[in-house]
Design brief:
Layout: E1 2-11, E2 14-24, E3 29-33, H1 40-47, E4 55-60, E5 63-64, H2 70-78, E6 80-83, H3 95-106, H4 111-124, H5 140-152, E7 159-163, H6 171-184, E8 194-199, H7 202-208, E9 211-216, E10 219-224, H8 226-230, H9 235-240, H10 242-247
Helix pairs in contact: 3-4, 3-5, 4-5, 5-6, 6-7
Bound molecules: adenosine-5'-triphosphate and magnesium ion.
Adenosine-5'-triphosphate (ATP) binds at residues 11, 16, 34, 36-42, 85, 200.
């Protein structure tokens, strides 16, 4: 379970998150929505202990990680995989080395074990044929798949974090990545691996998520399901989700 309790974070006098509280289970399928600079990526970084809040608590399975040392953060971090924004790969490494990175860095796996695990992951992501290619030789969609494979190497996550996994992709490729996100999280609670997809593309979020959290000006202004989201009376939120109606072939509300 993940609990944010009255979390506040500011850079200088710019308040990014203002007394934010929410609770979620690892098996949930969540979309964190909001405009650019709204604090979406920051929420993921706080969850991993990459950034520390100025006030409040962040509990992962009941343990407050806000004061944890780097070595103490290792265990809670292992509960998550993360695909960073734009899925940046190491340009100088081929696909195999990109995916093998965490295995080499954080495990004592032998060369054979690494090769086996990399091939296994590339098979799951349906990009086995790309193992020897360099990132520049891959399409945007393939790059995202490699980034997802890399995030899964070296951990067996209880929850997958995707930061803008579909941003910058054409609609069809984005759709494929959404299908993949759904596939990777298969199973029923409590066996299911949940995810948080951070995005400003509400149509992509709607293909995968069951719970929607909308952030504006450092506050959670909505937390609910898709039906509730579509019924919102908040003007800014309505504008933000209008693309859902376009996608549905319906008129704006
Ligand atoms: N290390 C930092 N130093 C100073 N300001 C920062 C830092 N990291 C983030 N910010 C600021 O905090 C705010 C929230 O950033 P964050 O990256 O969480 O937004 P976001 O919702 O993910 O935006 P986007 O949709 O553009 O990815 C932004 O205004 C950003 O400029
Ligand atoms: Mg971001």
């Amino acid at each position: 379970m993940i609990e944010f309790k009255n979390v506040t974070l500011a850079y200088g006098n710019h308040i990014v998150l203002d007394n934010v509280s929410f609770t979620c289970h690892f098996y949930e399928k969540i979309a964190v929505l909001g405009g650019s600079g709204g604090g979406k990526t920051t929420i993921l970084k706080l969850m991993l202990g990459l950034v520390r809040p100025d006030a409040g608590q962040i509990l992962i399975d009941g343990e407050d990680i806000t004061k944890f040392s780097e070595s103490e953060l290792r265990d809670p971090r292992m509960k998550f995989s993360i695909v960073f924004q734009e899925g940046a790969l190491f340009d100088s490494m081929n696909v195999k080395e990109n995916v093998a990175f965490s295995l080499r860095e954080y495990t004592k796996s032998t060369e054979e074990e690494i090769e086996k695990r990399v091939r296994e992951l590339l098979k799951i992501l349906k990009i086995e044929g790309a193992i020897d290619l360099m990132p520049e030789e891959l399409s945007g969609g393939m790059q995202r798949r490699v980034a997802i494979a890399r995030s899964l190497a070296g951990c067996e996550p209880k929850m997958m974090l995707y930061d803008e996994a579909t941003t910058g992709l054409d609609p069809l490729t984005a759709d494929n990545i959404c299908n993949l996100i759904n596939e990777l999280s298969k199973g029923d609670p409590p066996g299911r691996v949940g995810f948080i997809i951070v995005t400003h593309k509400v149509t992509d979020a709607a293909k995968v998520a069951e719970r929607y959290i909308f952030i504006r000006n450092g506050n959670i202004i909505f937390d609910g399901n898709l039906v509730e989201l579509k019924m919102t009376e908040d003007t800014i939120l309505k504008n933000f989700i209008n693309e859902l109606y376009v996608a549905d072939g319906m008129h704006k509300r």
